[in-house]
Structures are given as C-alpha cells and as structure tokens.
Amino acid sequence: MNVHLLYRDKDFNLQQDLPWNSEAVIQDLELDTMLKAMADENEFTFEVAKTVILSGLDNDEATIRYHQQILRDCLKNPEVVESIYTIAVESIKKEKENYLGIFSDYPDAILSRSMKVLEIFIEELKKLRNLANEKYNDFDSKGFKGLFEMLKRDLTDEYFSEMENHLTQLKFKNGVLISGQLGDGNKGKNYALRKLENGNKNWWERFKYDYLFPWLENSDKKWIRRLAHNNSKKGVYNFYIHYRDESGIRALRNIKDEGINLAANALAQSDDHILNFFVHLKSELAFYRGCMALYNKLASMEAPVFFPEPMETGHLHDVRGLYDVSLALTMNRHVVGNEFRAENKDLIMVTGANQGGKSTFLRSVGVAQLMMQSGMFVPAEYFRANICDSLLTHFKREEDTEMESGKLDEELSRMDEIIRHITPGTMILFNESFGATNEREGAEIASQITGALLEKGIKIFFVTHLYEFAHSFYEKQHPKMLFLRAERKPDGTRTFKIKEGAPHQTSFGEDLYNDIFRENKGNEPTE
Amino acid sequence: MTFQSILFEREMTIGADSNKTNDLSFLSDLNLDQVINAILSGKKEYDLEPFYHAYLNDTETIFYRQEIMRDLENEILLTVLNSFAEEMKKMREALAALEKLFYKNQIERQFLDIVSSYCKAVLILYNDLDSILLKSKGLLSFKEYLKAYIGSDYFTSISENARQIIEDLSSIKYTILIKGLQVKVRKYESEINYSEEVEKTFSKFKEGEAKDHKAKIEWYANLNGVEAKIVDGVSELFPDIFSRMHLFYKANFDFADPVIVAFDREIQFYISYLNYIAPVKRAGMKFCLPQISIERKEVSSKESFDLALASKLVSEGKKVVTNDFHLNGKERVIVVSGPNQGGKTTFAKSFGQMHYLACLGLAVTGREAKLFHCDKILTHFEKEEHIVNLRGKLHDELYRIHQVLEKATTNSLVIINEMFTSTTLQDQIFLSEKIMDKISKLDLLGVWVTFIDELASYNEKTVSMMSTVVPETQAVRTFKIIRNPANGLAYALSIAEKYKLTYGDILKRLKS
Description:
Structural class of chain A: alpha/beta
Number of strands of chain B: 13
Radius of gyration of chain A: 35 Å
Distance between the termini of chain B: 76 Å
CATH topology of the largest domain in chain A: Rossmann fold
Order of helices and strands of chain A: HHHHHHHHEEHHEHEEHEEHEEHEHEHEEH
Shape of chain B: extended
CATH architecture of the largest domain in chain A: 3-Layer(aba) Sandwich
CATH architecture of the domain at 283-466 in chain B: 3-Layer(aba) Sandwich
Strand content of chain A: 5-15%
CATH class of the domain at 283-466 in chain B: Alpha Beta
Strand content of chain B: 5-15%
CATH class of the largest domain in chain A: Alpha Beta
Strand order of the largest sheet of chain A: 9-10-11-7-12-13
Structural class of chain B: alpha/beta
Number of helices of chain A: 17
Oligomer: heterodimer
CATH superfamily of the domain at 283-466 in chain B: P-loop containing nucleotide triphosphate hydrolases
Number of strands of chain A: 13
CATH topology of the domain at 283-466 in chain B: Rossmann fold
Largest sheet of chain A: 6 strands, mixed
Strand order of the largest sheet of chain B: 10-11-12-7-13
Largest interface: A-B, 95 and 81 residues
CATH superfamily of the largest domain in chain A: P-loop containing nucleotide triphosphate hydrolases
Number of domains of chain A: 2
Radius of gyration of chain B: 35 Å
Shape of chain A: elongated
C-alpha cells in the first residue's frame, strides 16, 4: 500500500539528503519565516515542508502539476483532508501506546502484541476505506483518486474478514500444531506451524453418527464414538508435562515459539508496514496542510496567490505582482509586487538605489522558484518560469566582521564551492557579491566569473551596486541580458519597485543619507 | 612395501629410541625450547613433543622426512591435510561428547553422523591426494594404503549403511500438537503450512524492506527431556528405521582405522613446524632442506638466521639479519669475536639450531645449507644465576666443559658461548687454548663465541668471524627559501586565482 501524494511512483523520504547548499538557501532567502507560517508551531510539519520544498528542485514538470492538482483538491475539501490526517495521527499514536518492551524476545509476546495493534489498524483502515468510498467523487487530482482507488481495491470487506479470521485462528484455542523433522542428533528441526483443520471437521465429527446411525440411542452413539475415537488414536503418541516441571514447560514453550515465530514475524512486519503507510500518509499530508495554512494566512491579508506554469526547457521569467512571502508575513499585510518579463535571458542584472527593494526582489524570485518547483502556488498575480535543477545563492554575508581581505577570501571560497556543484540547469542568485574589496577589483572578479557563467549559459540573477561591472555588461548590448533597476522618483523617494532600466552611476546613497538624517517617515522595508 | 608411518619408513617406535634419554639441556641454550614450545602450544592434542625430542640417528629417515617436507611445499596439499585434520578433530570431539549425552536416540544418531563424517573425510582425503602430484615415498605409500582401505568391505559397508539410515531418518516428517501441557506426536499428514498462509494474507501490506521481528530462540545441540519424549514418540511411529539405527550403533564401535588415526597425528609433526615458520616465510625469509652428510664436516649456509629470534622480530614487524658461513677443508671451528650487541650469540645459536632441526628431517633457515649429521649437540653457555663466588664460577665452568668433552665423540657438534670470563685474561687464554687443543684433537665441529683474539687464529682448524656495527644514517629534511619574481597580479585576483575562479579557470572547470 502506497500513499504517493508527493510522487507518483515513490514514497516521500523525510530523511533524504537535501541539496548541499540548503543551509545557505534557507538563510539567504529567509525561508524560515514562510516555513513557520506553514508549520503553525508544529515541528513535524516544519521539517516536512522544509524537506519537500528544498528537494523540490528535482521535480519534473509532471510532478509539479501532480502536486498542484492535489493542493487544489485540498483547498476544496479541507474537512476531508483533516479527517484523513486525524486517522493517520490517531493510528500512529495508538500503535505507540502498545509497546512491547522487554518481551521482544518471545514470539508469543510479539504475536499477541502484533494482533492487538493489527486489530486497531484494521478499525482505522476501515474508517479510511469508507471515507475513500464516500468522498471519491469530491476529488479530481490523480493523487487522491489513486489513493482512494487503491484503498477501495486493496481493502475489500472480504479482505478485512480474511484478516480477522487469522486473528481468531492465531489465538490457538485448539492448540498449536507444528510439523518437524529430525536433524543432527535426532533433534527436531524445521519446525513449521500447520493449520489445524477444525471448523468443518468438528461439525462433521459432532454429527456424523447422527447421520450414519440415525436409529441408535444417544448412549449407543456415545459408545460407538468412543470406540472410533480409540481407533483413530492409533498412530498418536501422547504425553503430558507435569505442571511443576519448569524446565519441561520451558522446553515446550521453545518448540511452540519456533513454530509461531514466522507467523508472529509476518504480523509484526505487517504492523510495521501499515504503520509506515500511516506515517507516510501523515507526512505527505503534512506538506499539503502546511500549504493550506499558508494559503489561508495570505488570503486573510488579501495577498494574491497563483498556481504557476512551469516550463521544462528554455529560460523564461514572466511575472506580475511577484512579492516576497516572508516580508508579507512579517509585515502582516500585502506588500508591493514586481512585474518583469525575461524571455531567453541568461543574465538578469539588478542595479539601483540602496534600500530600494533589490534584495527583497531577489528573494522573491528565489522563493517563488522553490515554491513553484515543489508544486505550491506562488506569491504573485501571474507567474510563468522555467524550472531549474539546482538553485544556488551567493549573498553577501553581513555577519562577517573579519578584515576585508578575509571577507573576500570567504566569498571566493563559497564561489569555488558553487562552481564545484554547478550544472547546465542551474539558476544562480548573486546578491552584492564580490564587493568586499575596492570597486575596481570587485568589478574585475565579478566580470570574470559572470562572463564565464554566461558563456556556459547558466541562468543568473545578479544584484549589484558595482557600477563598473554592471555598466561593462550593459555596454555589450547582449540580447540574452536584461537590466532592471530599483525605481527612484525624481524627488528621491523610493517606490520599492523594480523596473527595467540601465545601470546608473550612483547608488543613491546620498538619498539614503538624507532620508535618515532629515526625517524619519516610519519604517519601510529594509534589506 | 606397506605403509608404516609418515614419520618412519621402517617400523620403529619412539619409546624404544635411545635418544629419548639424552640430555636435552642444549635445547634451551639454543633457544630451541622456545621454538618447540611455540610449535606444540597450538597442537597439544596430538602429543607431538616426543617427535620433536627424538634426534634421528639414521640419515635414511631424515631423507624420508625431507621428501615429505618437499611435497608439503605444495599449498594445495597442505590445505587438503588441514581440512582432513579438522574433520578428524571434529570426530574426536564428537565421540568425546557422546559420553555426556543421556538419550539413546540422540547418542545413536550422533554416532551415525560421526561415522558418516569419518567416511566422507577419508574418501575426500584419498581423492584429494590422488589429484595431487606426490613424490615422497611416505605420502605415496600412504595414498596406496588409503586406496586399499576405501575399497575394503568393511569401509563400504559402514559408509553405505550410515548414509542410508541417516537419509531415512531425515525423511521422517511428524507433527506435534501442543495444547496446554498436553503433547501429541503424529505422522505428518500434509497439513497446510499456516505460517505461509498468514504471510500470504498480510503480504498485501508489504512495501520495501521490513525489520526482522523473528525472535532468537535459544538453541542447544543436546536434546532436553521434552524433545527426547517427542523423539521417542517418533520412534514408535517409525520403528523400523530406529531399530536399524540401534543395530548400527551396537555393531560398529571401533570404526576408525588405527593407521589413519596415527597418520592424522604424525602428519601434524610437519604441519605444526610449517605453521610455525609460515609467518617468517611470509616476511620474506628463506628456508631450505639441507644437504646432510655423515662424513664431510665442510658445512656451509647462505642467509641463515636464528629462528626463535626471527619469529619474535617478525611478529613485531622488525627486520631480521641473516648470515652466511662456510667451512672448507680442515676448518672446523668458527671463532666469533667483535663488538657486543653485534649478533655473535645469535649466530652461534642459529648454527646449533640448524643442525638440530636438520636431524629431525625438517627445513632449516637460509637459502641453502650443507650440514653435518652429528651424533649429538653439546653446548656450553654462561650460567650466571646459580653461582655465588667467582672461584665457584670458574670451577663450575671447567667442570661443565670437562663433561662436554667427555661426552663428545669425533662426530659431535659443540657450541661455546663466552667461557672463563670470571678469571684473568692470562688464565683465560691459557685455559681456552687448552680446551681448543682438545677440540682440535677430537676434530669437533663447532662455534665458539669469545673476545680472545688469539683463539681465532689458533690453528688451521679455526676460522675467524667478526660482528660489525653499521653506522646509522639520517634522513635530511629541506625547508628551502628561494627567490621568485613577483608576477604582478593584484591581491584580489591572486585570491581568485587561488580558488581557480578566473574566467579561464571556470571555463576549464565547467567543461568536465
């Protein structure tokens, strides 16, 4: 039984290795804020959301659409999703309550514990199957349809009664029948549990004399029965163990244990498998529940969301009203969105005023990419983009207080690491990189690196205040480059909008200075 | 000729050997006691000590053994013999274990298994030996003996019977019904395997690898009371098979062939020695089967060494120093002098060891060796511990060397290590020359370690050898500082270069 709500053909693995640069991505894109909103204080949901989103870069277009459909279904049927989630959570909880402890060495203890857990699981699976029957038509996604169909197909009433029948049999009301062979030293070996045929046979045994000799008195039948019984005793060797013979009792239990070991194992493994099913159900649903929580929060602040259109090939960003989720969540209101269209562009260079929203813009691009690729909606009014197979970030690290040369060394060593991991399908975000030296040297380094990456057709977003660097690329008038600039009105105020535009010589530090020293108009977003 | 023993070509028993009573004190002087103890320690059950203490007086037996040693250089043959030994060991242990068993049905079945394993082991041994090219008289005639034994009526009947009865017992299938404290034993009547049925039903949930929940159930090889009762029950259900098992047990108590049993013990004489020298060999040290002469005292050796010391050094991963020696014409006594800690005593010991081991028919250290078949080995080593005053010590030494020379014949070997050191040099020279005179007259072969130079050139029979000390060499480390022209790169770009992040570097890196 498979859940397969995240991947069509495999289970979700919460313990999987995340991309090598996950720590950096989380930090640079300030993902924690969004993950916390999804998790609603639930640590488990946090981990699931983090894993699904960061590993989402491996998803192909079909998987992304698969997620989108499921998420739409969830948003349409929140109560049903909640019920399924509750069944999974309850099953896992009840299983934990029945723990085996110190008796895990004894098959009979394993067997009886497994039977108890199985009884609980059967009840929960019945609930789940019934839900699948009732709500099947309310769902449209392949994922949910598939899950429900699987439940209906695999968990029939007949199958439930087959399991329940075993649970009765395995109580061994009529004793344990074990076959054996003689091994070395004539010691019994190959002990195997055998089926005691009693159901029908008992009925026949009980009534066959009535049927065969209907004319006889009851007392005579009893006599015949006893005679027949004795005869059938031939070929039977019978003995008893004294109730105070402790070692004898232990020896007998050993044989019995060997006999039931496999059945106990089968049941215990089934418990594990079913538990595993519920665990997957819980964790895969946890992701969608996280998405639902985020959706509700954004809806409550009237911030738009959009199910994006992923493109398998080419380089494209066609977006409208794209905003930074984390910023919106922090401010608890809808924030300014941006619009740009970059078709067949390899380098998108962003220049402009300090504190003009460049970093926020870059983050919104990165976060939207991750959200799109994990099958979520994105924070935008419209969003179409190509998918990438890895998302690398190279952000200036503010916390680094070492001397300048050490800083540059650190930046370059991170860049070295990035080059090691780069692939043709990489999208890389630079934020004020290589500024840790004087502008000329910084520009030279940035030019060489960017030039080489461009040559290789890597998709680059580069936010920089290095005018010389930006300008030299702008002058090339290359068709695969797009230049954006943080907007500044003629009076010097910022709109926090990023618009198409050539790099300007100054980064408007003067504005900023004036802004801070002249008057304090309340806090607009800071970088 | 019929096979007698893998150690002796002709009938001979160790107990009757006169050498048994010989004084073996020289073994500890030569550190051979260490060697022998180490060899014996892993093989106690075979009681090999008498063989290692039995100095062979006839060269024929030495050659008989050397041929076998040569055959044993074949690793395959060694493997074959080792696995046979392993089987025989199991057989002895199993037979001993039988005595501790209670239940007839177990004892008799165990016995069947033992006989069956014995027969198999003998058959395998013969077949294996037959497939190996053997050259030694000893192993070839043993192989012929085995061939006849395997073809004998007795062997074929026990092996076939044992096999058949075991097969019949193994084919028995029965069931046990346990209900409370009641146990019923019946013949198996094709009842359905219920575990499989349960597994089948629940396999629907199977997904990937599952944790194993099978309990480890205590298992003892021996039957307990309940199991014995169950087997009793089975024996009543299948009386014919069990009675054949019983008869077999009664009839075949002495199934093991005494000649094969003796072979199993005696071949260990060679194997134990080969096992002991194996690590030394692996360390690259050479061993050889020496030429042995009963007449010529012109002994020689290349790359020989002290076996006891080498075994220790190799185990510590250290290097072993080898020596060459040779005596020509009338030369008889090697006089070893030179600086202390130079390996003088070690050399003397290895000289003695080689002669002793050669006379057991074993391989000796060194790439090649010509040795003399001496009638006895006599040693005189300093004994410090028991002596109280110096006069006592000199007296003791003179007394002991006197005894040595009394025992010596012209065919004896003598090893002397630092004698008369407790007296004045003048005395030492005087006494030593006296002793050397006697040795010369007896025409004894030997080694004498001393610092009295005069002895080295005493007469035409003495040969001088000296220990040397090799000066240590020291490795030289260099931390050179040389001028390099500045390459004019700015600091930042030089860091970029360091990380291979220039335009050209990146293009190169992304190509692969």
